[in-house]
């Protein structure tokens, strides 16, 4: 799925976040191991990336769906992570 996504000229979710946040600033990702060991390990990070980054000099909360994980489908743990 990742290869097909890239062949279509689309950025991967973490690459999109890197483009969004200010240069040379960190991104503090929350719960990267969410859903680990569940759903036959086909839903890394519960299919959603969440964290804090700096955009235009302001700290912001970032929530980004990972389209390479089942086309961005929400699972129960995706919802739980999103709500946290």
TrEMBL record:
Pfam families attached here? Carboxyl_trans (PF01039)
Biological processes, Gene Ontology terms: L-leucine catabolic process
According to UniProt, the name of this protein is CoA carboxyltransferase N-terminal domain-containing protein
SUPFAM superfamilies linked: ClpP/crotonase
Which parts of the sequence belong to the CoA carboxyltransferase N-terminal domain?
1-84
Q: Which InterPro entries match?
A: AcCoA_carboxyl_beta (IPR034733), ClpP/crotonase-like_dom_sf (IPR029045), COA_CT_N (IPR011762), MCCB/AccD1-like (IPR045190)
- Which organism is the protein's source? marine metagenome
**Could you state a single Gene Ontology molecular function term?**
methylcrotonoyl-CoA carboxylase activity
Q: Which GO terms describe its cellular component?
A: methylcrotonoyl-CoA carboxylase complex
């Amino acid at each position: 799925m990742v290869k097909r996504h890239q062949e279509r000229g689309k950025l991967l979710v973490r690459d999109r976040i890197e483009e969004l946040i200010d240069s040379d600033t960190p991104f503090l990702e929350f719960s990267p191991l969410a859903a680990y060991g569940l759903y036959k390990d086909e839903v890394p990070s519960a299919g959603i990336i969440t964290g804090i980054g700096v955009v235009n000099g302001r700290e912001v909360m970032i929530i980004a769906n990972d389209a390479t994980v089942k086309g961005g489908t929400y699972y129960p743990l995706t919802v739980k992570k999103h709500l946290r």
